[in-house]
Amino acid sequence: MERVAFGVLGPVVAESGDGPLALKGPRHRAVLARLIVARRRVVPVARLVEDLWADPPPGAVGAVQTFVGALRHALEPDRPRRAPSRLLVTEGPGYALRPESDAVDAWRFEAAVAVAAGLPAERALPRLEDALGLWRGPAYAEFADEHWARAERARLGELRLQAEERRAGALLALGRAAEAVPGLEVLLSGHPLREEARRLLALALYRQGRQGDALAALREARSVLTDRLGVDPGPALRRLEADILAHAPGLDLPAEPAATAARLWTRAAAAYDRTVATGARARLEATVGLIRNLAVTGGGGLEEAQRHRLEAVTAAEEFGDPELTARVIGAYDVPAIWTRSDDPELARRIVAAAERALAALPPPGGSQDAARCRLLATIALETRGVRSPRGPEAAREAEGIARRLDDPALLAFALNAGFMQSCTRAGLAPRRDAIGAELVELAARHGLVTYEVLGHLIRLQARSALADFAAADRHAAATDALAERHELPLAGVFTQWYRAMRLAAHGRPGQAATAYRAAAARLHGAGMPGLERGLLPLALLSLRLTPEEPLSTAPVAIDPGLDWGPFRPWTEPFALLADGRPAAAREALHALPEPPPDLLYEVCCVLESHVALRLGDRAGLQRAHDRLLPAAGELVVGGGLFTLGPLSGHLGRMAEALRTPIRREG
């Protein structure tokens, strides 16, 4: 199916690779817009009728069906006549539009603004400018008077204003006050009551040496607020006015660390370029350090780091010095929390280079043992999610060397490797919790901040699996506090997913679904495809498969057109059952391999058990039951991201079915 993109930040449009799609009349466009407003949720036909007509005419339901048919033809012109639509789907009492997470400009805008919020000014500014560039006019422009669009238009409009203010704040932080003034003046001409924009404008004017204009802007703010709302300016505006009158030193750029840091970076980089020879080994090792730091700064930084990492390793191997290669490979000790690789091919090549360097090092017991430890830890980290004895073996050996050398940073790296290899079977949450506890204590004692964050995230996952949400909440709070203080935005991705999962665990599936979608939007552009692919559909499916949900004999409807990523083998049987093909579903069930050794091992086993229950397949049930039994007292929490509820409930269903005759389907 050719990708279709949708635009709602302005007039509603749809386009494919060949250009804009013809959407026919205004009612067709209204149906499309209404489904986009629903954000992938089903809109009942009755609701569509109410939203399209103030006084629905006879045959309104048939008209809606006609509109939907025409839209399907426009959106998927090559779809066979009777084949189900994968984009505009019929589900239950109505319809849902199921585009990819980045196929709607408003969703891309929201994701970019969310990512920018966790970045320093120099990296946030281009993201905000790109995001604001998506706007072609007011959101859902031609539906301004429709009640169903009103709340979404207001929400997006407010987010746009916040993004404009954040852009101005980033310009000020970078010492570009003059560039911030025009945009703020335009913003205030249409929205004169926004106090943050008033504050930023006055500060920008002051930093240009225009003290009188700055004070005049603040007086105008006071006048507008008093005349229109009968209130005085808030504390931020009052404080700024007092600071300007007192020429407070904090108003000048030296108090804004981003500008000072930017200037320092430029001078230091230039000096390094002048001083260190182009082909020097020191330059290569310094570059690896930069790549390592880049990886923990968030979306774009992580992607760039992954892209340049192999180049650095290749360059090191070209020197023909295995010790240099070992240092370059081992210097990338970036804490890793997700047990599935973002780039399996890159991981394979890094492991191959590490094995070559390891083989070329002197025998164990000498001065190169620290380098050996780092290579072994790298091998264990990069074979995450791969069922092979090499990963666990390398992790154990790395930990043994690190403990013998009594090197805290080395031990933290090795413990991370051990965590990556701690999902080889179900029921290992206590082991992961112990690793996380040691990491938190070790890292806090030796100032290893990124590993302290890692330890809290590991314990968040493990305590969730052990149904200890009070402890998990404490680790989530500690993670957020450290991440904010040390500018580590990726950590917040995991705590946001955790809090969405908490809603599901406390029996609030509707709120959880909304929170899952918000968390997924933040993942877009975060540079973690190994985490992102298939996660949102799986999280939403999990809401229908908890033990509290009655086990209906009706098939669980899923949308096979969604990107299920690496989970497709475990969801394909659901789609086949829903399509009335039990024999094919049984064949797919029997073809399933053992799930990868990662944090979603138990999730995949539970999915397998649900299909086996519906098919009455004893072999599949027994296999899933035996694999899951070691975790009998745990919750199925999908790495702290979503939940399938208590495993005991799933095991109980399986055990009951295995004790009694079960009807085979198909």
What do you see in this structure?
Strands 1-2-3 form a three-stranded antiparallel sheet, with no helix packed on it. A three-stranded antiparallel sheet has the order 4-6-5. It folds into three domains: 1-158, Winged helix-like DNA-binding domain superfamily/Winged helix DNA-binding domain (Arc Repressor Mutant, subunit A); 282-501, Alpha Horseshoe (Serine Threonine Protein Phosphatase 5, Tetratricopeptide repeat); 529-659, no CATH class. The relative contact order is 0.06. A hairpin with a 2-residue loop joins strand 5 (88-91) and strand 6. The protein is mainly alpha-helical and 666 residues long. It has helices at 26-37, 45-52, 60-75, 105-116, 121-132, 147-173, 177-190, 195-207, 211-229, 235-245, 257-275, 281-295, 299-318, 322-330, 344-360, 369-382, 390-405, 408-420, 429-446, 449-465, 469-486, 490-505, 509-523, 529-532, 535-542, 568-578, 582-590, 601-615, 618-628, 647-659; strands spanning 5-7, 13-16, 19-20, 43-44, 88-91, 94-97, 635-636, 645-646. Helix 1 (26-37) packs across helix 3 (60-75), helix 21 (469-486) runs antiparallel to helix 22 and helix 26 packs parallel to helix 28 (601-615). The longest helix has 27 residues, at 147-173. It has 30 helices and eight strands. The radius of gyration is 28 Å and the shape is globular.
